[in-house]
Design brief:
Layout lengths: L16 H6 L6 H11 L14 E3 L2 E3 L3 E4 L6 H11 L3 E5 H4 L7 H8 L4 E5 L6 H15 L3 E4 L12 H13 L3 E6 L3 H10 L3 E4 L13 H10 L6 E3 L5 H9 L4 E4 L1 H4 L4 H21 L19 H6 L2
Parallel strand pairs: 3-4, 3-10, 4-5, 6-7, 7-8, 9-10
Antiparallel strand pairs: 1-2
């Protein structure tokens, strides 16, 4: 049984309507930002910003942050983190709650009330047959064609099985699913998945749950450059908001994370921080990051240099 954890508002006062909706407390940074946005006629959604809209499987979304629902201290903290993140898509593990036996009904009902699109996943499946069976069950139970495809190839690293993933993706696409395929940063496999017709290719940044951040930025950059038409979502291994900003600066369409928020000391504040990290990375990509150089280059002009500098050069 999970322990309910609640945070008292600063000063002991009642939560404002804005704070109640977003899980904020009066006087907090998050509450101030959202209140200011509301007063300026701007949306309070922390996941949305000008030019943030993107599409996947024919659906337009404003937030580029997808969020997992496992390992939170309590259902209340999960709800507040979802509100703070501004996410519009939540992924849920089917095998963890055993829906085929009626397990987790209270959890499913709670998740459905958050107003987000549901992205069931096949985490824990060890072959294509298991993954396909679970996906078919998910569609029947939850009425969605969206499925996050995961086929584990190694129990220690939880590295995706490239052969099982591709096999399952081919079958699920034929069955009419919008497949979000979790994979490594291997370019050849990513291309095969894209050619198969998946809705999104989801390369890892590092092993799932490790929080180590991008281990091979060159490989991720290559994926984006070589697959310009694919929807690419970095999934797994991100640990800090700066990690999210890094991959978004490369031009990835979105990020999906769970542990980095759920196991933070303050999941609600961390969810908000990741929303800002995703925004910063996307805006940086749109702005055009300056090229890296091997040598220093003065940021101030030499025209008008003081005469004593000129004299010293003689």
């Amino acid at each position: 049984m999970e322990t309910e954890i609640t945070a008292a508002p600063l000063g002991g006062g009642a939560l404002t309507p804005i704070a109640q909706a977003a899980g904020t407390t009066p006087g907090s940074i998050q509450g101030i930002e959202q209140a200011q946005g509301a007063m300026n006629g701007q949306p309070a959604d922390p996941g949305a910003f000008p030019g943030s809209a993107w599409s996947v499987s024919g659906i337009t979304l404003q937030s580029r942050l997808l969020l997992g629902t496992a390992h939170y201290p309590s259902p209340q903290i999960l709800e507040q983190a979802v509100a703070a993140s501004g996410t519009q898509v939540l992924t849920v593990g089917l095998r963890r709650l055993q829906p085929e036996t009626g397990g987790g009904q209270a959890f499913w009902q709670r998740i459905s009330q958050l107003g987000c699109r549901l992205l069931p996943n096949t985490a824990g499946c060890q072959d294509a047959e298991q993954a396909v069976s679970l996906a078919l069950m998910a569609r029947e139970l939850f009425g969605t064609d969206w499925i996050k495809l995961e086929v584990v190839g190694d129990d220690y690293t939880l590295q995706p099985d490239p052969f099982g993933t591709l096999q399952a993706a081919q079958r699920l696409v034929r069955e009419g699913f919008a497949v979000f395929a979790y994979t490594t940063d291997d370019l050849v496999l990513a291309r095969r998945l894209f050619e198969t017709g998946v809705a999104a290719v989801m390369p890892w940044a590092a092993p799932i749950g490790s929080g180590r951040g991008p281990q091979n930025l060159h490989a991720l950059r290559t994926l984006r450059e070589r697959l310009p038409e694919a929807v690419l979502i970095v999934d797994a291994g991100l640990g800090t908001p700066s990690h999210a900003a890094q991959v978004m600066e490369l031009g990835f369409d979105a990020v999906l994370l769970n542990t980095a928020v759920a196991q933070a000391a303050d999941p609600v504040r961390m969810a908000r921080a990741f929303a800002h990290g995703v925004q910063a990375g996307r805006l940086g990509y749109q702005a055009g990051v300056m090229p890296e150089r091997d040598t220093a280059q003065a940021s101030t002009p030499t025209v008008g240099m003081p005469f004593w500098h000129e004299a010293g050069a003689c």
